[in-house]
Amino acid sequence: MSKTEEKRRKPGKDRGVPHIDKPWALAPNEALRLGKSDPGKGLSEKEAGERRKKFGANRLRTVKKKSAWTILANQFKNLLILVLAAASGLSFVLGDWLEGIAIGIAIGIFIIIGFITELRAVRSIEALRRLGSVSTKIIRGGKLKTIGAQGIVPGDIALFEGGDVVTADFRIIESSKLQADESTLTGESVPADKKTEAVSGDIPLAERSNMLYKGTAVTRGSAKGLAVATGMRTELGKVSSLVEETEEEFTPLEKRLNKLGYKLMWLTVVITLLVAGIGILAGKEIFLMIKTSIILAVAAIPEGLPIVATIALARGVWRMARRNALIERLASVETLGATDVICADKTGTLTQNRMTVARAAVFTGTVEWDSGERRPENGPSGPGKRGGNGEKPLLREILHIGVLCNNADLKKSDEGGYQATGDPLEAAVLMAGSQMGLKREELLQKKPEVREVSFDPDTMMMATFHKTGSGFFVAVKGAPESVLEASARILTRDGEISLTAEEREKWIRRNERMADQGLRVLAFAKKTVEDSGFRPYEKLTFSGLLGLQDPPREGIGESIGRCRDAGIKVIMVTGDHPRTAKAIGNELGLIDDQGNGVVSSGELKHLDDPGEERRQRLIQAVIFARVSPKQKLDLIGLHQGNGSVVAMTGDGVNDAPALKKADIGIAMGKRGTQVAREAADMILKDDAFSTIVAAVSQGRVIFDNIRKFICYLLSCNLGSVTCVALCSVLNLPLPVVPLQILYLNLVTDVFPAVALGLGEGEEGVMKRRPRNSREPILYRPQFIQIGYLGIVIALVVTAALAAALGWKALAKPQAVTVSFLTLGFARVWNVFNMRSRKTSPWRNDITRNRYVWFAVVICCALLFGAALVPGLSRVLSTAGLDVRGWGLIAVMSFLPLAAGQIILYLREGEGRS
Fold first, then answer.
1. Domain final residue pick, 688, 714, 737
2. Radius of gyration of the CA atoms of the chain, in A
3. CATH of the domain at 607
4. Which among 494, 519, 549 is the end of a domain?
């Protein structure tokens, strides 16, 4: 879309095209007048075409597909590859064509492998995003048509029924028993009742009861609506725009690798200039010292680092894909390992986003409910549940009322359970009734429904009239306060008695106690009348209460416990009432019984400048209720500013901005909206919170592996640099030539480093606290290890060269071959120095890694080939060796391994003391 076209399509800028401001505040006829539409005929095809030209297609701004060329170009942004390319160019300038070509080939290998791994990761996410199109029934030219959602324009008249997806923003002009699931926009798991009457213009989205919004779904009833906004002008489009405006953060691993790359670049420049300057001042040939500087530059740069990091992260991506987690960016795997805060959206993430009966209150007492599965054998008689036989007749009566006064549908599923459609509250009551043997179809055959009084927000009740032999049975359900107010009698075990003021107050307190436990409470009442035209809400007989809940996801408590063991703070973010959030938090083990750590929306209004005391309270809180999308962004920023690495889980549109702002956003693959998935770094195909725990474990293993192979590469390369510099100062021949160094860095180093990157990790990785977010990828112990091993390798190689020239009296080509192979084998054995200091030299995460043994065999074969294969030995300038030379290589190359094991043993002793 061009900028000119986009500007032309902004709301209010299109001459002659209707734009309705705050349509919920207008009467239906007024909205139709402003929209220039006929409710019976709709728009003509000609008018619809003109509006489509002006407003554009009804779709969100699509995320541009990442082209293969873009992915390829990204490979050249790696700093180490750029430095290596500079070394290749310098070789060409100095006439060393063979070296320049060899370095260029190495660069090509790195780029190709990095390109393939990133392309596979990106395409897997793009495949998940391909969603089927949604259709809508509209009236065009007086005829009912079904068209694709993209064809809807402002002014269209659409028809909706239960189960339909809303494809634009509509002002409701006609409705019957209408409810809509708006949880993707508001976070509320309970469907919203809809009507046609105008409401105040300055009310939040959740209270606009005469609107249907794009991305939501009709759960019950039917409606006719006027399209008032399409595409990016819809409320969904506004949230999508907020996602695009949210600044995306670099992952911690990307920051650390970039920082390390800059350090290595400047270190390389300083070393090469220093050595070249000293040599020139000492009177050595200028060309020779420039040549030596090139050797040092090649030796200092760990050419294998970018590709090994890519392979290690890609391996993590593939492992996670097998565990139902798709990773968008490779570095996101490691980011999870550093995560110390997870902001989890409650609805659909921590809970199942479906209502079930949890408790019933009747005159004689309270009955607990087993509603773990949608099966008829579960119910109040489940093992260990309270409530004796005395409560069952009364319980059966309130369920009898609830099943009759109901519009949901319950069907048997193939798995033996039940599949419910309609209002989740009503579906839960039907499920509870079926567990007591009360089937709606059977009850309606005996007591057919003749009249329904739909739920009214003013009365907060609903009623149905059913024909009986002598009159009509009236079933009523609704808010406890309203039903109690309309009741004159109460049902007891011995029959009906008068409902006194004292008894009514007692039931109000019971209702409040159930609400404090996070339950949504419904009251039930009945009466018998002679005529179906009687008023429904007078002289009722109160029968009892049902407490319903949105139950936690299976295994969520265990997953939260594992996060706690790993030092990860789980924060529940919800749009629910604070009392409900508190009760669910208690059930999940997030907070204590006193409710410490619960923050409501009122305390979130000053997140921009909270003050130190309030800031500390917000940081310590574990539950945030009534949170808006903007406050989610501020909340994540608050924890990021406190030095935390924040992950955000979610599935709704209202989660999308926070998913993008977080260090890693985690979207649900099954229930997640398209906007949420596009904003996320990781998508859970199974929607399981436990998959996040597995990803955290994998992320920690990946970072440990990255740290190990970086230590391995840098210690090996430091040994190469130091031995070249040392031999130059001692006036010895150069121990290796440039192509030999490149051969070691590209071939014999990469295989052990890759093997380290593929390790399964140490035991107990989830029993330690997360790394500090400010901790560099390498810190003092690693630098000491790198320096120690590098110096030992350099001394051993220099000693081998001197011994070959003096003690063994070998010619210069043979002596250089000895030093080259000593360096090569010493670097191979150095892989076993990367074990944890707390493990045995014989049984550790390195020796258990089968890839390490494969790498050792391959590297040994390649090193022998460098000396024994004629064509390869000629390119690498190696000479044939006798038994003396091979014996010297064998003895000297093992010395760094022995020195490394000694230091690990001494450090292990320090740890025990």
1. 688
2. 36
3. 3.40.50.1000
4. 549
Question: Is there a contact between 769 and 832 (Cβ–Cβ < 8 Å)?
Answer: no
Residues in CB range of 281: below 8 A, 6 or more apart: none
Domain count, the chain: 3
CATH number of the domain to which 522 belongs: 3.40.1110.10
Bigger pLDDT: 63 vs 799: 799
Q: How far apart are CA 422 and CA 409, in angstroms?
A: 6
Cα separation, 482 vs 461, in Å, equals: 7
Place of tokens 């419910």: 420
Question: 684 and 728: one domain?
Answer: no
- Look up the pTM and report it: 0.64
Shared-domain flag, residues 719 and 847: yes
Containing structural domain, residue 662: 331-351+553-688
345 tagged catalytic:
yes
Residues 722 and 668 in one domain: no
DSSP annotation of 669: S
Considering the chain, what is the average pLDDT of its residues?
80
Reduce the secondary structure of 305-369 to three states and give it as a string: HHHHHHHHHHHHHHHHHHCCEEECCCHHHHHHHHCCEEEEEHHHHHECCCCEEEEEEECCEEEEC
Q: Are residues 764 and 672 in the same domain?
A: no
Residues 6+ apart with CB under 8 A from 891: none
Which residue of the set 96, 345, 634, 681 is catalytic?
345
437 within a domain of the structure (yes/no): no
Q: Which tokens sit at 68?
A: 């293969």
- What does the chain come to in residues? 913
Which amino acid is it at 590?
A: L
Q: Is the dihedral of CA 767, 763, 897, 741 positive or negative?
A: negative
Does 114 map to a domain? no
- Distance in angstroms (rounded) separating the CA atoms of residues 395 and 399: 6
Residue with tokens 């949608």: 374
Decide if pLDDT at 245 tops 60.
Answer: no
Nearest to 303 by CA among 79, 84, 77: 84
Q: What is the DSSP letter of 20?
A: -
Q: Give per-residue pLDDT as tens, 32-60.
A: 999 999 988 899 999 999 999 888 888 77
Q: 331-338 vs 252-281: helix axis angle to the nearest 10?
A: 110
Q: What percent of the chain has pLDDT over 70?
A: 78
